[in-house]
Specification:
Layout: E1 6-10, H1 14-26, E2 30-34, H2 37-46, E3 52-56, H3 65-75, E4 80-84, H4 89-96, E5 103-105, H5 110-158, E6 163-166, E7 171-174, H6 176-181
Helix pairs in contact: 2-3
């Protein structure tokens, strides 16, 4: 059984928000509503269980949806899907600079909205996985560099070098001390014959 996802629906038209929330509830989502950009930001700060934000772009007076999305993303790592009744290029372009996981035109129906939400979750989770892998690789590279530094420092102190020969590529790898012993620049690439 899948866990219920909590959506923050940001929509300035109360009647539209309540109708959408009801439809989304029937699809198995828990829906919180905010009726302004400021309320959306405050709700995102206050509610740690929010899994996604469905953000209207035009929110009447005050902060628009793109500004609210910026403020939410500055504090919370959440997927945002923009909702709009507008399809003109100017409105769509306002969302392009913001990390989001979709743009859904209002009144396309609950089936399309639900499919867009599910796709956004898949994209978001893939993004988190890539981010985690990149972080792991960076940590491993730092650890490997520390090991290389320790090996080079130990070789320098003991005046002992190390080298490796890859039979498949016919390439040699030398430690820093081997370069010093042979009195060659660190950019020198030894050949098999010279080695």
């Amino acid at each position: 059984m899948t866990m219920e996802k909590t959506l923050l629906l940001v929509e300035d038209d109360v009647m539209v928000a309540l109708a959408e929330a009801r439809k989304l509830n029937k699809r198995g989502y828990r829906v919180l509503t905010a009726f302004s950009g400021l309320e959306a930001v405050e709700t995102a700060r206050r509610e740690p269980d929010i899994d996604m934000v469905l953000m209207d772009i035009e929110l009447g007076e005050g902060m628009d949806g793109t500004r609210a999305a910026d403020l939410i993303l500055a504090e919370c790592d959440l997927p945002i899907v923009f909702l709009s009744g507008h399809v003109d290029a100017g409105i769509v372009e306002r969302t392009e600079r913001i990390t989001s996981y979709g743009y859904v035109v209002k009144n396309t129906g609950i089936t399309i909205l639900d499919a867009s939400i599910k796709m956004a979750f898949k994209l978001y989770h893939a993004h988190l996985k890539v981010k985690s892998i990149a972080s792991d690789l960076a940590e491993r590279e730092m650890s490997l560099q520390k090991s290389r530094d320790l090996l080079n420092e130990t070789g320098r102190m003991a005046k002992v070098g190390g080298w490796e020969f890859d039979v498949a590529t016919m390439e040699q790898t030398w430690t820093e001390e081997v370069f010093r012993i042979h009195e060659v620049d660190a950019n020198y690439r030894p050949t098999v014959e010279a080695g």
